[in-house]
Records
---
Amino acid sequence: MIVLYNSDSFAVMQIDLPATSGDAVSGIEIVDKQTRKGIFLDGELAELFRAQVEALADDDEIDPADIDAHLARYTGAGWQPTVLH
């Protein structure tokens, strides 16, 4: 797991799991710290998310509030409670 972004409101991690019986799993986990819920994006949705974030990063005047606003767009997409293991 690689932490890609961390603010007071959100954490974004790159998750790469080795193959156990088939293909390896790779994706993005977004955790909303305020609600303690998260979502895992993989496949085409993860690629779309990466492209959107790269476009934001190209903006010289980007600030954490802009990134948090972008991440908040994903809050309605089937969030699951965060569980500590």
---
Amino acid sequence: MTPREYDESDARIRPSRTTRRRTKDRPSHSDSITAFVTTVDRGRTTCVTDDGVVVTAMKARELGPKSVVVGDLVEIVGDVTGTEGSLARIVVVNERTNSLSRTVDDAARVERTIVSNIDQLLIVVASANPEPRRGLIDRFLVSAFHESIKPIIVVTKVDISPVPDFIQEYKTLGVDIITTSSKLENRARDIEKILEILDDKISVLVGHSGVGKSTLINDLVQGADRMTGDVNDVTGRGRHTSSSAVALALANGGWIIDTPGIRAFGLSHLNRDRIIESFPDIYQVIQKCMPNCSHHENSCALGPWIESDPELRAERLTRVTSLRSLLEVKPVDEER
């Protein structure tokens, strides 16, 4: 048998597995349009453009691990018609003015952002059934002051029980207190009062399950149809009826964001000094404190300041006492 001669056509060249050379250059997306995120669910984001078009979008891979949350202003490209089955891409998450975030507990360091770009934080509590829990209210207030968000406490079910005294004390920190009744003859007036506060603002509702948050949303937004739940007679806790945050448009302009009922709100990611900066007069006084002052010591500059004006002593004492309780933010089990 004569030996066979081979040429290059007989050689099998294995396809190269190398990919296209990576580059730091990224598309400019000059044709992108701005949209407001209203829901985020399993990788799909619903957002509304300035023209009122509701668009479904997904996060572009180039954004990496950066999260998209309700309240974000994003840039979208692709199919932005909003027609059924269409899908746009989120290519930019614009810088947030602020955000409401939490950690799982006070020992955790991983911060989870819930919503962003907020004007007002409405802390919804019930005067009874379930009983208001000061620990969680304090935590919401600390987060609001830290992010320069205006806090408002909404007390529901005041026809069942009066507003607790400790909630009234928050007024000295500049926190507005609004009450609502379950009685029909008072309900319309209460809702109208809240709507005036919400006009042209982005407002977030937070609170325990069972305090009447979803009921309040249904009264504020026609057609919202948020599921409502009862309080468990055995545990005294509400049942979760909202599983994720959702932004709903208000008739007179603005947005209201409903959030899931929260039982734990860790604050290990916050800076205490930024909280005090929300109270300019107190912040000015503590500049005279010793380094590392916890503002509870006898040597704290707040003591002489309280006593320096007899006419303002009571008011200053109440304000400082309330602020000190916020700064403590002791690890507590809000589910108790």
---
Amino acid sequence: MASKLKLQPNPTFKFKVDIPVPGCEAVPVEFEFRHRVAADAYKFYGEWLARDEFGGDGDTEMLYALIAGWDIEEDYSRDNLALLLANYPAAGQALVDGYLDGLLNRRRGN
């Protein structure tokens, strides 16, 4: 029997995001994202696009509010997220795109 749709979705969902690695192929990592209602998700995306500073603490804070966990050897924390963003400069946009892909159930690839 097919599962029934719930009007109140789970508070989090998991989605694999391809983290770009300079000089190598992207590495798929499973992230656990916090669910947001449509209006809040679009507001977040607008704020992401409108930010004045790229990288640094602002990006860490925005993404920390979005991500609940990850499948990386190191524990998920604000400091480790900042380290990920510092070492992999394209990771921030990949995470935002991955979040929206997962939330909106967008298909990737062919």
